[in-house]
Design a protein that fits this description.
The chain is mainly alpha-helical. It has 11 helices and no strands.
Length: about 250
């Protein structure tokens, strides 16, 4: 475990030693802030109108926070390839992959180290947005459990994207190619359920299950379902398994 943590720390430091981490975090915070402001404005207007009409104010978790989290998932779709595209591609381009593969660490430790390093940057990215949510607790009284469920969903979805990104990055030495291919795969996982809308019931059910967004919707609404946890954890495990096979083949080719 010590080797994994050491590799994760090295990977995380490499992000912050360049502008990559700051650009990604800043971009995500800016876009998240835009959706936060837009939906807060809509929520305030609708609350005022309903209360003037003698009705009850809408639920802030359902009317605002859930929408903000769902839209932040869209931002992640575009931002995540920037995190993963360099993980292995840069090692191959600079020639340090041979040194890494011949070091006294296993392939699994290398993969987990890179995975947790990328997850560390992703967690930092999400942590910045907590400041926006904290403002709601300062001025209002939202429920914290649905918010926690939503952030858990974002964390698991990000883990899936990172596992896929590691796999694709391990297949090429060109960061741009890795980034484009990663975004393409992410997009396919995002819209795969759209194909099922014109298919039969069995095909539709299968494609809906494979869609990475279908499993996030319940998290955004504050619902933690075991089947969604199993899907995300299985997805992450399978992605890391394929990455291990790719790295192992690289070792033999080397």
């Amino acid at each position: 475990m010590r080797n994994v943590l050491t590799l994760a720390d090295k990977e995380l430091r490499s992000y912050f030693s360049s502008p990559i981490a700051y650009v990604i975090i800043g971009l995500f915070a800016l876009l998240f802030g835009y959706f936060y402001y837009a939906y807060l404005y809509i929520f305030i207007r609708s609350s005022a109108e309903m209360m003037q009409g003698g009705g009850r104010a809408p639920n802030i978790n359902q009317q605002m926070i859930a929408s903000v989290l769902q839209n932040s998932a869209v931002i992640i779709l575009f931002v995540m390839p920037m995190i993963t595209m360099r993980t292995y591609s840069e090692e191959k381009r600079s020639g340090t992959i041979e040194l890494l593969l011949t070091s006294p660490v296993t392939d699994v430790q290398i993969i987990l180290g890179k995975f947790f390093g990328a997850m560390g940057l992703y967690v930092a990215m999400l942590a910045v947005t907590v400041l926006y949510i904290a403002i709601l607790f300062w001025f209002g009284n939202p429920e914290w459990r649905p918010i926690a469920a939503g952030y858990l969903g974002l964390l698991l979805m990000g883990g899936c994207f990172i596992s896929v990104g590691l796999l694709i990055s391990s297949l090429t030495k060109n960061q741009i190619v890795a980034g484009i291919l990663t975004f393409t795969v992410f997009l396919m996982l995002w819209i795969i359920n759209w194909i099922g809308e014109s298919s039969g019931p069995t095909t539709r059910e299968i494609l809906n299950y494979l869609s990475i967004t279908e499993h996030f919707n319940d998290f955004a609404r504050g619902v933690i379902d075991t089947k969604h946890l199993i899907y995300y954890l299985s997805f992450i495990t399978f992605g890391l398994f394929l990455t291990a096979k790719s790295v192992d083949s690289e070792r033999w080719r080397g």
